[in-house]
Every structure is written in structure tokens, then in C-alpha cells.
């Protein structure tokens, strides 16, 4: 399987329409790939909160139309990163879009974990509630976005649903790039899955992006890693490795799902 992660530069100086056209051209140039991935909130900028209301769109909006046409032209599966979705109830969501080789929109995923504490996503966006996977001829894809990486429970739920390939678009800050590297590799090792993590580059909303997109195999081996600038990172993935490691080192079968509280904790909580 050949995959490409388009580490798009996202800046305050380029309009959403300009970036949409540029991203579509980059996707069309990936004919021959099997799967192409774009970063998180690359149309509006993940840190440009003031632009979210004006830039919000339905899942069949201008970004979806451009990405559908690009996926169809290149005949690739396209994870088009995420957009600011305006739901039917008017709420905003950080929503991923997946298109098949014909350009059909096959899955959406609303980001579950919202970053910001008392700012940004945590204030302006609603949370998704659904764990999302899809079976393809490439393997079963599981969806997560950026801040989701810090919550292993989601990834374990994705693997319980049969996921073999974890796709993670992001807009991770440059100052925490080493944590990004650690978490991406950790999710690959603990879930014994391929992780395709595509981060934005550039600076917008006062935040420099980490770049450093990665393709990681189930052993935690980095198969390909981007630098800090705009780049198309391509990797060949041997999907047989997923089944092989799960057979050779079947750690997932040793999970203990109900661990009793320590004795002192039980005593402290007793009436």
C-alpha cells in the first residue's frame, strides 16, 4: 500500500479558497497512491478561532466538493483532514471527511476530544460522540484527530472495532513536537496498528505548527517522517505486518478489563 501525507502549509496570508485549490492540485498529483491524507482544519486554520464562524460549512460544502473531485481524478482514497462543520443544529464541529476512489463521501468523524480548556475548540465547538471506522480493500481505517492522541481509550476502542490503520490529521504546536512524536509511536505500539499522522506546517493564529508528519508501523518503527515545512511524505506500507505482529506478540489478548481498586482506596471510601 502506498500512502502520501500532504503536510500542507497553513498561514494567515492565504485565503481558504486559494488553499482549497492548492490542496486539490496536490491530491490530483498523487495518482498511483492508495491513500492520501491532509491535516486538521487546513481551510480555516486550527488556531484561527476568529475565522471559524465565517469559514464553517456543511459536510457537502465547498471543501467536500473540491476534495471529492480531486479523489476521483487521482483515483485514491482521500482522508481530507478536517473542516469546521456547521451542523444542522447550528453547532460547530471539527469533522473529518473520507472519500473513496470514485469521489464518494464514505465516512465523517466529529472530533471527540476538544482542545483548549477554556478557549478554542473547548468553547466554540461541540464534541463528537461516535467511534468511527470503515472497512476498505486496504484494511480497516480508524479515525482520530490531533488532541485525540492523548486519550488511549479512544484508540483501544478503535482497535476493538477491528482497526488496522489509524489515520490522524493534526495541527500540533511546534513547541510540543517531541510529545507528538512520542504519542504517535505509542499509539502504534500499544494498538499494534499502522499510524498515519499528518500535521500542518506553517504559522497561523499566532501558533507555529509542528509539521513532522509520520508513517509508523505496528512495531513503532518510523517508516517516513517529514520536516517542518510543507512537504508530501510518501511511504510504502506492508499491511501483512499488522497480522504478523498480532500473532507473534498477542498482547491484546492479555488485557484485564476490570482492575479492582487498591485495598487502601476501598477502605478510604467505605462509610
Automatic annotation (TrEMBL):
InterPro entries on file: C-N_Hydrolase, C-N_Hydrolase_sf, UPF0012_CS
Domain CN hydrolase span(s) in chain numbering: 1-239
Pfam families: CN_hydrolase
Gene3D superfamilies membership: Carbon-nitrogen hydrolase
Keywords, alphabetical: Hydrolase
Superkingdom, taxonomy of origin: Bacteria
Any one GO MF annotation of this record: hydrolase activity
Family affiliation: Belongs to the carbon-nitrogen hydrolase superfamily. NIT1/NIT2 family.
Name used for this protein in its record: Nitrilase-related carbon-nitrogen hydrolase
Provenance organism: Nonomuraea mangrovi
Upper classification of the organism: Bacteria, Bacillati, Actinomycetota, Actinomycetes, Streptosporangiales
